[in-house]
Design a protein that fits this description.
Elements lengths: L4 E6 L3 H12 L5 E6 L3 H10 L4 E5 L4 H13 L5 E6 L2 E5 L9 E8 L5 E4 L1 E4 L4 E4 L3 H6 L3 E3 L4 E5 H7 L11 H11 L4 E11 L9 H19 L3 H16 L1
Parallel strand pairs: 1-2, 1-4, 2-3, 6-12
Antiparallel strand pairs: 4-11, 5-12, 6-7, 6-11, 8-9, 8-10
Length: about 250
């Protein structure tokens, strides 16, 4: 069987984390559960229910980026490969170790349906736009730049070191785009594993919360789009697009 260290990032919502960990335990006990600033009562409950896994506790929430970085660093102390999940996912299949180092995405299904949420994604910096691909063909042929959504991915230690950790100044949103772009620039391969399947419940921690949807998401969208816009003409087009959005 594949030898991964599974990292699950959790912030409160113990009922969701419970479901995620249970799904992962169907495949392995090599799990690191990151309690990223969760309430003490939730941490104690999950430690009681799952004594067989590792628990990494932080008193303060450090956003997706901080929690993911700490979880991945802990995983790489035990293995060359890490499989990362947010707690609003359930694991449906554990992939084999990839033949090539890199950052590898999953086939992500939407909730309890047969609908595909994403099979990788593409980034269009001059438009400030992201697209979730619905097939491997889209991921490989659509324009823009490839990126691997942070919901569920596999990464090896060397690729993580080449790309660098998630940018903690971003907090949450677009951090996966930034890491994917840095990985690509560093010569790290990005791809999707056909035998890696998860279900995504839809962002329980951030959904419909103005701090995330009206602050962090638009702020980080502008930061990352500007950072990777390829040339002056495209940057001008991007700024015009942002100005139009602000007016209307």
């Amino acid at each position: 069987m594949s030898k991964f260290q599974l990292v699950i990032l959790s912030y409160n919502h113990p009922e969701i984390t419970l479901r995620c960990v249970k799904s992962a335990l169907d495949f392995t006990q090599e799990i690191i559960l990151v309690h990223n600033g969760s309430d003490e009562k939730n941490v104690h409950y999950l430690k009681f229910v799952f004594p067989e896994i590792s628990h990494l506790e932080f008193k303060e929430n450090t956003g997706f980026t901080g929690g993911a970085n700490q979880g991945l660093k802990a995983a790489f102390l035990k293995s060359q490969w890490a499989l990362f999940l947010t707690n609003d996912c359930t694991l449906e299949s554990l992939p084999e170790i990839p033949l090539t180092q890199g950052v590898w995405g999953a086939h992500v299904l939407w909730k309890n349906s047969s609908k595909t949420d994403c099979i990788g994604g593409r980034f269009f910096p001059s438009k400030g736009h992201l697209a979730h691909c619905k097939s491997l063909q889209e991921f490989e042929t659509m324009g823009g730049f490839a990126y691997i959504p942070g919901t569920a991915f596999v990464i090896d230690k060397e690729s993580f070191e080449k790309a660098g950790p998630f940018d903690q100044s971003l907090g949450t949103f677009w951090e996966d785009v930034d890491l994917s772009m840095r990985a690509t620039k560093g010569g790290v391969q990005l791809g999707v594993l056909s035998d890696f399947r998860v279900r995504h419940a839809g962002g329980k921690t951030t959904k419909k919360k103005p701090y995330y949807t009206k602050n962090l998401f638009p702020r980080n969208r502008k930061i990352i789009s500007r950072k990777y816009c390829p040339n002056l003409i495209q940057r001008i087009k991007l700024e015009i697009n942002f100005l139009r959005e602000w007016r209307f």
